[in-house]
Amino acid sequence: MRDYCGVVGIYGNKNAAQLTYLALYALQHRGEESAGIVSFDGKKVSQQKGMGHVGEVFTETNLKKLKGHTAIGHVRYSTTGSSIAKNVQPLLINHKKGFIAVAHNGNLTNSVDLRNELEDAGSILQTTMDSELILHYLVKDHQNNYSGKILSIASRLEGAYSFVLMINDAIYALRDPYGFRPLCIGKIDGGYIVASETCALDMIQATYIRDIEPGEVVIIDRQGLRSMKQPQNRKHAFCIFEYIYFSRPDSNIYTQSVYLTRKNLGRTLAKEHPAQADFVMPIPDSGTYAAMGYAEESKLPLEMAFVRNHYIGRTFIQPSQLIRDFKVKVKLNPVRDVLKGKRIVIVEDSIVRGTTSRGRVRALRAAGAAEIHMRVSCPPLMWPCFYGIDFPTRKELIAANHTIEDIRKFIGVDSLAYLSLDGMLNSMLLSRDEFCTACFTGNYPTRINKPPSKKSLEKNRIPAAKKA
Questions:
Q1: Distance (Å, rounded) from C-alpha 111 to C-alpha 128?
Q2: Any idea which residues carry the catalytic annotation?
Q3: d(CA 54, CA 74)
Q4: Chain mean pLDDT for the chain
Q5: 463, 132, 170, 177: which is closest to 140 by C-alpha?
């Protein structure tokens, strides 16, 4: 039901599905559980989706079947919704006026109210995801103009959303008025692409045009590109965790460089919390650029004393604790000859549960490190995120239940320090007032409804038909 995902839409290119496939490869870091593409050739709509990475779901054979000049794609990581085939996006429905396919990044905080309203009116929901809700509302709305329908429905949605829809022979892309989740537009060979990050544009050599603005609905069809906007009566709430962890460093998010922002975070961290050490080392990969900034500011050498196994997925976005613990052990290997007898500063991007950091510190101790000082390039994570990140309850957040000294002892480091809230906000290349910091402060930009539990959703889900 709450997904951290990547979305892509391409219009006006005869190789739309193949380009979408490549763009999804660039966005694989945003979701490793499932992937899907829906395409349209003017007559026939086709789809291919499944569980697994992009390279596992798509083959040369099934990509050839995805014909047409229009396509949308999705990579998904489920945070509380079920990791099952029925929930794989894009979701596609056929109805008397054609078809609608939807790919969604974010989380609707009023999904409980919307779900109840639809079910009370007779709708039968097939998945456990809030992405399905917009499909039902679009079909139920009797306006002939889909642009008007989308604006009408968007006014009722609360929370974080970046939607890409393919409705017959057009693509619609919309972003919530707060701008929680990123979404940008590019141009390629006379056609257009919309995507979660600019690295997807780079992958297919598309030219970046601009970000889709908060509250904007972009329509791309035979008439070209045009847009409409929802009423603007609120400040922005860009997800600051995009810069800290999620986005690729070669992307520009909310128009600013992720790479440079992470270096700024490291520099500020070094000013606030210096350490006597022989060198600085990052936790690859998202901690690398903050570590570079820390080392530059501290005038300390930077050593890559952890070597990453790039065939292992990102630890933070694994769906089960058993798999997460296993991958901590095989993902990073310490370089013993560099570490033996040394005082080191390790730079982490964040600490969520603490178990991953604890495993890494044990590996460094075993490799002979004499002192280990941990520095974290964001403040302590204290509050759940209701906008699509995988820490939905306070009991999962170690900093919400323990002091920094308790955390230091649990992880096993000689010293532990976090970047301050002011330090983090002052490191941003945008105004500090542009960001959502609810996971650090508990100050949520929107009304929050308690979401239904996974168990209750699964209880009401229609079971798949059994094979004869």
A1: 11
A2: 5
A3: 9
A4: 89
A5: 132
List, for residues 160-195, the tens digit of each pLDDT value: 999 999 999 999 999 999 999 999 999 999 899 999
**pLDDT number for residue 462:** 34
The H or E element containing residue 10 is strand 3-11
| Residue 311 CB partners (closer than 8 Å, separation 6+) | none
Domains and CATH numbers, the chain: 3-237 (3.60.20.10), 257-441 (3.40.50.2020)
Q: How confident is the model at residue 123 (pLDDT cuts 50, 70, 90)?
A: confident
Read off the amino acid at residue 270. A
For residue 391, what pLDDT is reported? 72
DSSP string computed for 353-410: SSHHHHHHHHHHHHTT-SEEEEEESS----S--SSS-S--SGGG-HHHHS-HHHHHHH
HSE, side-chain direction, 13 A CA sphere, residue 357: 25
Q: Would you state the structure tokens that stand for residue 284, as one six-digit string?
A: 């690859």
Through-space distance between the first and last CA atoms of the chain, rounded to whole angstroms? 30
Give the H or E element holding residue 3: strand 3-11
Q: What is the pTM of this model?
A: 0.89
Omega cis (within 30) before 285: yes
The pLDDT assigned to 139 comes to 87
Q: Taking Cα atoms as reference points, which of 289, 199, 297 lies closest to residue 244? A: 289
> Exposed/middle/buried for 46, CB within 10 Å: 0-12, 13-18, 19+?
middle
Q: Is the pLDDT of residue 137 over 70?
A: yes
| Range in 66-70, 125-129, 216-220 the model is least confident about | 125-129
Query: Residues near 32 by Cβ (< 8 Å), separated by ≥ 6?
Result: 53, 75, 77, 313, 314, 317, 318
> Is 60 exceeded by the pLDDT of residue 219?
yes
Burial of residue 343 (number of CB atoms within 10 Å: 0-12, 13-18, 19+) = middle
Question: Is 117 a residue whose pLDDT tops 60?
Answer: yes
- As a whole number of angstroms, the distance between CA 74 and CA 22 comes to 12
Q: Which helix (H) or strand (E) holds 39?
A: strand 34-40
* Residue 429 one-letter amino acid: L
Q: What one-character-per-residue DSSP string does 50-105 give?
A: EES-HHHH--HHHHHT--SSEEEEEEEEESSS--SGGG-SSEEEEETTEEEEEEEE
